[in-house]
Design a protein that fits this description.
The structure is a homodimer of 415-residue chains.
Chain A (H helix, E strand, L loop, with lengths): L2 E6 L7 H16 L3 E6 L5 H12 L5 H25 L4 E4 L6 E3 L8 E4 L2 H8 L3 E5 L2 E3 L5 E3 L4 H13 L2 E6 L20 E3 H6 L1 H4 L5 H10 L3 E5 L7 E4 L12 E5 L2 E10 L4 H11 L4 E6 L6 E9 L3 H15 L3 E5 L2 E7 L9 H11 L4 E7 L2 E7 L3 H14 L1 H12 L1
Parallel strand pairs in A: 1-2, 1-9, 2-6, 3-6, 9-11, 10-12
Antiparallel strand pairs in A: 4-5, 7-8, 11-12, 13-18, 14-16, 14-17, 15-16, 18-20, 19-20
Family (chains A, B): Belongs to the aspartokinase family.
Organism (chains A, B): Aquifex aeolicus (strain VF5)
Protein name (chains A, B): Aspartokinase
């Protein structure tokens, strides 16, 4: 029995007409010999309007009740989805999270899945029904309704696929994952296959496509994901284990992030505990720090730079200025006009010269690098915001559009 | 522990402002020393718009999916209700039908309650929470969502009250049950106490107030019901066991029904099986027959009259004409312009002369009686539709407004 979990996002089920389109895609999978298990989000806009309603009642609605309220959106969608399949002549049965059951911990509004019962799903499939499961919802061991956090339907789909040992199809409103944001780089290409790790590092590209937590989940259980457009028959992007990505190009994609602010604490005494003091204070204030760069020290002093999300910048500035004074740093410099450009690819692990090549491309285009940070499969450079698009286009042209040429060089380098 | 089940109908929870009003009524009960258990309907209009949506998808949506869809309305309402209580400082917890659980049979869209778990409710109450239960919903032993049919929230409330051995308060948009329709009889009075039997016979008055099935349920388990307006502090009408209705007046209320059509099958051969043939055919066509009147026969022939709902009249006419021809009746006469006037009261059981007095009042007002039918606590007369309002007013004036005088007569009659 070849089960296929097919997930449809909020835009895909946004109207009754669109639900019918989705249902037809399910029927197509059935005709190809798959046993489909549908996972549906709430119809586009429903969740937002429920949240708005709750906020009118209570500035901070109890999270338990919030979950009960929000679960309504998916319940409505699955009933309509199942009705549509029935109308088209295919017996279908909707299941809420508690009916599957999808058992979670009891952290309301951002619960984690603990286990999934599959016997009911399997017997429905054997009896010839198409199960239509509510995304986003779960139930605790104590019969409390929980939800999995924004975009949680992706996690539902991946978890079901893991439990059923099936592939997972994510039907959404974009055709797949691209090598760069097509609005910036018109030549951006759809990626055919990408590893979980690459997908995670390409978060800023991928987040528009699917919830990052669900990719982590897929990586953990080796669930193969096919992200594709609900509104087209084209193949999308497969997100798969690393060993399945045959073509290990050095650079899979290029991202740009202009939502960060850089701070530099100038002339910090270079002694143990200083970094800890700064970042502990930021952590206590629930500020997420992204890049952290510290150079070698000169004469017992160093400069320390880091970036935070722009929305946290004012709070961060206040905190850091206080600490800077306390530890005797010279000053704190704030720079809001920065962009973080990253290149990502598992090929990097075994390819020499990728970083140097990146710096060279930026230099040739007259772009100064303000900070560098690297991981195994990602290199990020902080640059002046006004060069962001230019940088992405230049990097895309040389790393991706001239890929064949690069791969030869890469091959040579590997010798 | 003095538990009080407080049910709020759709209009009562129709807006967030109204939900707050309802929540305040719950808090008032709490302050009076009650432990309230709230039952809420869906916000006014929700259920209808969900049905409309389903009809757009499927001309006859599968009933199982219909239940899953409709259950959404109450789930939304209870979450908002519980949030409101929390905002006002009173910890509350919403419970869907399956969370209570309210176990039903598996007849989707009109399920019957089989049993109710009360341990979760009791421990919530003991921990200081106000449980807010979704009306209208249940769950089968197989974890299928069911609904109890239109107005099913009343049944939920009465069943919970029965299980918890509590009184049941029905908060609605009318102040109680009246002796007649106040639009016809401006002097109609609110009834203070009425027996289950009277309430059932006054269906046409009572149906605007609460679901008839829930009254049957209350009668079976002796649940005392207090029907009152959500928007007023006044006492409403208590629906109670017969032995609690101290004041056994002959006539508790007067109803009029103009939604029926009368048929008379003229000169029917008076032999066994004829009546059965007519009414079996109507039953097979799912036509509900109300009054049936047959007089003594003359020379082997009799006339047989019955009434059906106007919406079924055309279908009934076709069926009856066929059978009339077959059994050799003379003709079938149809009369659409009839009204059924009924007087109801448990006092009738022990009071002589009530029927005669009713006929006399009608005669004095020049109203001809076309058919009569009686039960232990109800007398119905079919009259010309144009006299309907006149008849109700005249009967109300003499039986209800002049009640004291009547009771003296009644007392005399009983000697």
């Amino acid at each position: 029995m070849k089960i296929l979990v097919q997930k449809f996002g909020g835009t895909s089920v946004g109207t009754l007409e669109r639900i019918e389109l989705c249902a037809k895609r399910v029927i197509k999978a059935l005709e190809k010999g798959y046993k489909p298990v549908v996972v549906s989000s709430a119809m586009a806009g429903e969740t937002d309007s429920l949240i708005e309603l709750a906020k009118k009642v209570h500035p901070r609605p109890p999270e338990r009740e919030m979950d009960t309220l929000l679960a309504v959106g998916e319940q409505k969608a699955i009933a309509l989805f199942a009705m549509t399949l029935n109308k088209l002549g295919y017996p279908a049965v909707s299941l809420c999270g508690w009916q599957v059951p999808i058992i979670t911990d009891n952290v309301h509004t951002k619960a984690r899945i603990r286990k999934i019962g599959i016997s009911r799903l399997l017997s429905l499939i054997e009896e010839g029904y198409i199960p239509v499961v509510a995304g986003f919802q779960g139930v605790t061991e104590d019969w409390e309704i929980t939800t999995l956090g924004r975009g949680g339907s992706d996690t539902t789909a991946v978890a079901l696929a893991a439990a059923l040992k099936a592939d997972c199809e994510i039907n959404t409103d974009v055709p797949g994952v691209f090598t760069a944001d097509p609005r910036i780089v018109p030549n951006a290409k759809k990626i055919k296959k990408i590893s979980y790790e690459e997908m995670l590092e390409l978060a800023s590209l991928g987040a528009k496509v699917m919830q990052i937590r669900s990719v982590e989940f897929a990586a953990k259980y080796n669930v193969r994901i096919h992200v594709r457009s609900t509104f087209s028959e084209e193949e999308g992007t497969w997100i798969v284990p690393e060993d399945e990505v045959m073509e290990k190009v050095a650079v899979r994609g290029i991202t740009v992030d202009t939502k960060e602010t850089r701070f530099t604490v100038v002339r910090v005494p270079d002694k143990p505990g200083i970094a800890a003091e700064i970042f502990k204070a930021l952590g206590d204030a629930h500020i997420v720090v992204d890049m952290i760069v510290q150079n070698v020290s000169h004469e017992g002093y160093t400069d320390m730079s880091f970036t935070v999300n722009k929305t946290d910048a004012d709070k961060a500035e206040e905190i850091v200025k206080k600490i800077a004074q306390k530890i005797g740093a010279k000053e704190v410099v704030r720079d809001d006009k920065v962009a973080k450009i990253s290149i990502v690819g598992i090929g990097m692990k075994s390819a020499y010269g990728v970083a140097g090549r990146m710096f060279d491309i930026l230099a040739r285009n007259g772009i100064n690098i303000k900070a560098i940070s690297t991981s195994e499969i990602k290199i990020s450079c902080l640059i002046d915001e006004k060069y962001a698009e230019l940088a992405v286009r230049a990097l895309h042209e040389e790393f991706i559009e001239e890929m064949e040429e690069f791969e030869t060089i890469n091959g040579k380098n590997k010798e």
